[in-house]
Amino acid sequence: MATKETDNQQQRSSQELPVVLVNRLPSFRLPSKPPFEDDLLSHFHLLDPHDSPEPYDSFLSRHASSIRALITVGTTPVTAEFLNLLPCLGLVVGTSAGLDHIDLPACRSRGIAVTNASSAFSEDVADCAVGLLIDVLRRISSADRFVRGRMWPAKKEYPLGFKLRGKRVGIVGLGSIGSEVATRLSAFDCSIAYSSRKKKPSVPFPFYANVGDLASNSDVLILCCALTEETTHIVNKDVMIALGKQGVIINVGRGYLIDEKELVQCLLRGEIGGAGLDVFENEPNVPKELLGLDNVVLSPHRAVMTPESFEALLQLTVANLKAFFSNKPLLSVVSNE
Amino acid sequence: MNNTCVLVTCPMFTYLEQELETRFNLFKLWDHSSSKAEFFNNYSSSIKAVVGNTKVGADAKLIDSLPNLEIVASYSVGLDKIDLDKCKQRGIKVTNTPDVLTDDVADLAIGLALAVLRKVCVCDQFVRSGNWINGDFGLATKFSGKSVGIVGLGRIGSAIAKRAEAFQCPISYHSRSKKPNTNYKYYLNIVDLAANCEILVVACALTEETHHIVNRKVIDALGPKGFLINIARGAHVDEPELVSALLEGRLGGAGLDVFENEPEPPEQLFALDNVVLVPHVGSDTGETSKAMADLVISNLEAHFKGKPLLTPVI
């Protein structure tokens, strides 16, 4: 924050510490728990155009030649046009698991490295996926409402749930998050299969090139993949019908991975058995038809939201920046697949 | 065998009652609740088997009133509602339903822990009530890597440990004696277990010794950052102490499938968002309920055919 810097500090720090641009939408902020800015300021000279009284464009062009690295906060976009304003940029540090807000081809063609934060988040996202799955199958949130609604004494029987053991789980996207999901559900004696862009040679689980085939052979689909042009609406009506009437979909990726209108219809018609959703096409708006369903568990895009995740994110962010400025290998660079 | 008289103590599972009816002369105790004396006068000496569960078992009074009772087949794995001493005295056989429900109960324990720590139910309510439009939900607590302490490392306790390990949770346990074939850390004293774990899971049988085994000392040792998960019996926990600890913030949270006075859990918990409350559904899946019912039937059939019982307790 510009206000934190006295003129003295500014003179000292700009000479000693590497410059890092904080790229954020005005309403976004770096996390305060742990205090990201404080920690980053001890290693880097942070530039934040939104904290300067100077107009955004003028601030940026004045500093452009010194900006070799930027942190993009949450889903703040990094477009090709924006990259054009930063001719010396060599590194974009992402702070979310997903990267669909960053123009990766533009970065690639400029030789700009991109790091993501999946490894900081993957355990928490996997925990969220498993938590949502058990909740849907065993009706935990629904049962909790039942008890709090004082319905237990009157209604002797509560609807039965579904057994998790032995369920065939199909993971869409076996990256760091998908792998953590697989490890967890294996311990519940689920059988695991997966779909991803390419078969992974060292992975023991059956591979399906086509998500429809994966769905035909699964009882549960868990979406853990990145959102790209290819994966937009990858779970469409055909996939849901293939999954079947007892099938459960868990989405901890991005809302647009699923054709949301079709999902709602399939749930209402009983074409699939249930869903656990952390993400939606148009957050924070959720299709109102879902709000009254007991076989659906809804989460407000919180899969990464634990203090431990943020601590891990801060460490990863600092580590990637330090590695970059000392010409060492980056920790979580996104490969050019 | 259709003439063999079997008494089922309370409504438990329609499929079970139907299967019992096709094989035996079935009496439903709740059909005679207004005329109990008359019922027992007429039929007590004909009844050879009782099917009970966790709500209504076979206590001394019932057993005494059935002079020709040969077997109690419980639709549960827990035996706390059966007077085992009386059964032993009278030479009455007892069977339960172990193993078939182990996975479901263990799954629920982990599901409850995830629900409490990650605030799954609170988040769901946050979305349903329309509050997400007005602003983001706050932070939850990470589950992976948290230390899990298990009270009772039997079938269910071990299944819980296996699952928690996949989340990199260090496992420790307390039981009557150290178990030979495990690397988990053992605590002879449950207070020490509670002091050294972040999530305490109750998974032992209810006996005189384990009644209120989770008392104020244990709750205090678990502390304001600790969580209690109970999928065993309500009577394992001193419930008034648990309630005041939760209300006063001395305990971080609780996931509870069982209560001292079912079906009436303490209402003071209903307003808390650091508890998850479910109505004794540990084994309540279609698959497991059927498997348990089949086991009850198989045990009864084996007994009346003079064959070895499948899952005898005594």
UniProtKB/TrEMBL annotation, chain A:
Lineage: superkingdom: Eukaryota
InterPro entries: D-isomer_2-hydroxyacid_DH (IPR050223), D-isomer_2_OHA_DH_cat_dom (IPR006139), D-isomer_DH_NAD-bd (IPR006140), NAD(P)-bd_dom_sf (IPR036291)
Start and end residues of each D-isomer specific 2-hydroxyacid dehydrogenase catalytic domain: 60-334
Annotated D-isomer specific 2-hydroxyacid dehydrogenase NAD-binding domain residues: 130-303
Listed GO MF terms: glyoxylate reductase (NADPH) activity; hydroxypyruvate reductase [NAD(P)H] activity; NAD binding
CDD domains cross-referenced by the UniProt entry: HPPR
Keyword Lyase: no
Pfam families registered for this protein in UniProt: 2-Hacid_dh, 2-Hacid_dh_C
GO biological process, one term: oxidative photosynthetic carbon pathway
Gene3D superfamilies attached to this UniProt entry: NAD(P)-binding Rossmann-like Domain
Keyword annotations from UniProtKB, A to Z: Glycolate pathway, NAD, NADP, Oxidoreductase, Photorespiration
SUPFAM superfamilies on file: Formate/glycerate dehydrogenase catalytic domain-like, NAD(P)-binding Rossmann-fold domains
Entry keyword Zinc: no
Similarity section: Belongs to the D-isomer specific 2-hydroxyacid dehydrogenase family. GyaR subfamily.
Name used for this protein in its record: Glyoxylate/hydroxypyruvate reductase HPR3
UniProt organism field: Theobroma cacao
TrEMBL record, chain B:
Single GO MF annotation: NAD binding
Keywords noted in UniProt: Glycolate pathway, NAD, NADP, Oxidoreductase, Photorespiration
CDD domains with a match to the protein in the record: HPPR (cd12156)
Record Pfam families: 2-Hacid_dh, 2-Hacid_dh_C
Listed GO biological process terms: oxidative photosynthetic carbon pathway
Domain of life the protein comes from: Eukaryota
Keyword Cytoplasm part of the UniProt annotation: no
InterPro entries named among the record's database cross-references: D-isomer_2-hydroxyacid_DH, D-isomer_2_OHA_DH_cat_dom, D-isomer_DH_CS1, D-isomer_DH_NAD-bd, NAD(P)-bd_dom_sf
Gene Ontology CC, one term: cytosol
Residue intervals of the D-isomer specific 2-hydroxyacid dehydrogenase NAD-binding domain: 110-282
Residue span(s) of domain D-isomer specific 2-hydroxyacid dehydrogenase catalytic: 20-313
PANTHER family: 2-HYDROXYACID DEHYDROGENASE-RELATED (PTHR10996), GLYOXYLATE_HYDROXYPYRUVATE REDUCTASE A HPR2-LIKE (PTHR10996:SF235)
Family: Belongs to the D-isomer specific 2-hydroxyacid dehydrogenase family. GyaR subfamily.
Designated name of the protein: D-isomer specific 2-hydroxyacid dehydrogenase family protein
Organism encoding this protein: Theobroma cacao (Cacao)
